[in-house]
Amino acid sequence: MHSNHLLLEEPIRMASILEPSKPSFFPAMTKIVGTLGPRSRSVDVISGCLKAGMSVARFDFSWGDGEYHQETLENLKNAVKNTKKLCAVMLDTVGAEMQVVNKTENAISLQQDDVVVLTPDEGQEASSQLLPINFAGLAKAVKTGDTIFVGQYLFTGSETTSVWLEVDKIEGVDVVCKIKNSATLAGALFTLHASQIHIDLPTLTDKDKENISTWGVRNKIDFLSLSYTRHAEDVREAREFLSKLGDLSQTQIFAKIENVEGLNHFDEILQEADGIILSRGNLGIDLPPEKVFLFQKAALYKCNMAGKPAVVTRVVDSMTDNLRPTRAEATDVANAVLDGSDAILLGAETLRGLYPVETISIVGKICAE
C-alpha cells in the first residue's frame, strides 16, 4: 500500500546544501577576470588572486599610463612564476568614453536642485558650477529633458558618489543641467554617460591605438576588450588594426556592450567578435533597471548558441568595501553562471576594493557550487 501524499521531486537535494564547500574546485569552468590596480598590483596580492582562482588579468587603460600598467604586469609575471598558475592578459580600451576633466583633483560637491554647466572648454577649472568635458559635440547630441550621469569608476550605484543630471537648456556648446541628487565627486577621473544618445567619438581612439601598438605589442596581449562597441564595423576595424601589428594576430577581440546602440546591433557584433562582455554597469544606466536581466538572459543565450564566450560584469559591488557580498549579489553570480556565463569580470572590487583576494575566492566558490 503506497502512501497518499505526493513525493516532491527535489531538483537539488537539500542535504547537499549542508555539505562543506569543496576546498579546491576544477578551475576551468567559469573563469574569473580580475582588474589589477592600486589595491592589487603587488606580487603578494596578485599571487593571492591567482591562488584564489583568477585566470585573466585585466588592465584598464581608462586610467594609469603604460608605464604604470607595465610595472603591474611585471609583478603579475613574478606572481605567475611563484604560484605556477597561468594567467592571460586583457587590455581594456578607453573607447568612446566621455570624461570630466578635473585637473586639480579637488573633490567637487554638487547639491540637489542646483544648476551645473558641462562645457567642452577643457582649460576651465572643474567646480560645483562648471564641469569641463572631453567631448565638444555633447550640446548637439542632447536635448532638454535628457538624462546624464556623472560618476567615478562608472557609477557604483552609490548615490552619494555619482550624480544624476537632467538637461535644462543648451547654450552654444555648453549644456546647462539640473542636479537631481546631492553627491560628492572625488578623484581625478569621472565618466560621463548620456542615456540612449549616440556619442560621435571613435570606438578605437588614437590613444587606444597607441596603447595597443606599444604596450599591447610588447606584451603580446591575449585579449582586447573593445569598450563601447556599437557596430560590427567597430570590431572589424579593431581586427584590421591588430593584423597590421603582426605580433597580435592571435589576440582575441571581446566586444564590450555598454549601451542601447550596441544592444541594437548585437547579432552582427556577435558574428564579428571572438567573445562578448556585458557591461551591466553602463547598461543599467542606458536601459531601465528592470530590463537589464532580460538583456543578460537573451545575450548569454545567443553567445552560447554561437559558441562564443560571454563575460558578465558588476556582480559583487558591495565587496569593494565589505568582506561579504549581499545575498542578492551572491545569488546573482550563481544565476549568471546558470544563464551560461563563461566568465565573471571583477572591476572596482579588485582594482580599488579592500578585499581583492577574498572577492575572487567567494566568486570562485559560488561558480563552483
UniProtKB/TrEMBL annotation:
Catalytic activity: pyruvate + ATP = phosphoenolpyruvate + ADP + H(+)
InterPro entries from the UniProt entry: Pyr_Knase (IPR001697), Pyrv/PenolPyrv_kinase-like_dom (IPR015813), Pyrv_kinase-like_dom_sf (IPR040442), Pyrv_Knase-like_insert_dom_sf (IPR011037), Pyrv_Knase_brl (IPR015793), Pyrv_Knase_insert_dom_sf (IPR015806)
Gene3D superfamilies from the UniProt entry: Phosphoenolpyruvate-binding domains, PK beta-barrel domain-like
Essential cofactor(s): K(+)
Top EC class of this enzyme: transferase
UniProt pathway: Carbohydrate degradation; glycolysis; pyruvate from D-glyceraldehyde 3-phosphate: step 5/5
Keyword line: ATP-binding, Glycolysis, Kinase, Magnesium, Metal-binding, Nucleotide-binding, Pyruvate, Transferase
One Gene Ontology MF term: kinase activity
Pyruvate kinase barrel domain segment(s): 30-360
Top-level taxonomic group: Eukaryota
EC number: 2.7.1.40
Family note: Belongs to the pyruvate kinase family.
PANTHER family to which the protein is assigned, alphabetical: PYRUVATE KINASE
Protein name per UniProt: Pyruvate kinase
